[in-house]
Amino acid sequence: MKQFGLQLYSVRDHMADEASVKEAFLKLAEMGYTYGQTAGTYDFISPEKYAQYAHEAGIEICGTHYDWNRIRNDVEGTVAYHKALGTTNVGIGGMPGDARHSLDALNAFIDEFNACAAKYAEYGMKLTYHNHSFEFKKLEDGRTLFDHLVEKFDKKNVSFVLDTYWLQHGGKDIREMIELLAGRVEILHIKDMEACRDIRIGEQTIAVPYITEIGSGNLNFKSIIPLAEKCGVKYIVVEDDRAVDVGSYDAVKKSADYIKANLLD
After folding, report:
1. What is the 3-state secondary structure (H, E, C) of 167-209?
2. How far apart are CA 88 and CA 94, in angstroms?
């Protein structure tokens, strides 16, 4: 791996207005990040200005987590938005709630996602889907939601954004899943897992797995990343969902420092 990026959800507290967006990109570039994936619609700033600030800092926009209803209902507007950002990866961060609980609803979502993907392919763009761990729940047919996504998503027009933490959280072998989806993953989210952290639920203290900075947990990125690149992954993207709770700039800098010291070629 020669460079790495950030899912900008990790620093969402520092992208609240135009001035903070400009400052955020400059700070992330100083840490060593060279591309970013958006998280949301950022309606307070034009995509042209957003991309300008990113590019001035030396950061490429490699994809989005965008609004599913806009993707469905405003193809031309969504295409224009992504062209302004300079990316062809049009993504969502997860499926609608109803699709998570029944096979019929899941199949309806997959059919609509594929139909949308075909429309965006006409513009040279690809729809992307980011996993969590709920996709590894089994439905009434005994198969997981993810099994259905792998089988039924359009292999040409749809790409997976695999997330290492959520694969592990869902009980899956990260390397096996990367190999299974070779050629179908352009963006890999790297997110580390701490073995357990105590939380209080009522009167009980329960140890649960926890998202943490790269290098602070137990995932073996020294073997995951080379395999991912071998299997066609183009963008290695740090994501730290809980960074805003611990100081997001400090958290993503800690991840960047570990990557630069241990994972770059």
Report:
1. HHHCCCCHHHHHHHCCCCEEEEEECEEEEEEEEEECCEEEEEE
2. 18
- The confidence score (pLDDT) of residue 150 equals 98
**Residue 214 to residue 157: CA distance in whole angstroms:** 31
Q: What are the tokens at 165? A: 């933490």
Round to whole Å and give the CA distance between 129 and 160: 5
Q: What is the mean pLDDT of residues 143-155?
A: 98
Give the whole-angstrom CA distance, residue 89 versus residue 227: 22
Residues in the chain, total: 265
Q: 58-81, pLDDT tens digit by residue?
A: 999 999 999 999 999 999 999 999
* Number of other residues whose CB lies within 10 A of the CB of residue 41: 14
pLDDT at 55 over 90: yes
Q: What are the start-end ranges of the H helices in the chain?
A: 18-31, 47-57, 68-73, 75-85, 103-121, 145-152, 164-169, 174-180, 221-230, 243-246, 248-262
Amino acid (1-letter code) at residue 8: L
Residue 72, classed as helix, strand or coil, is helix
> 215: phi > 0 → left, psi -120 to 50 → alpha, else beta; which?
left
SS3 133: coil
Note whether 62 and 187 are within 8 A (CB).
yes
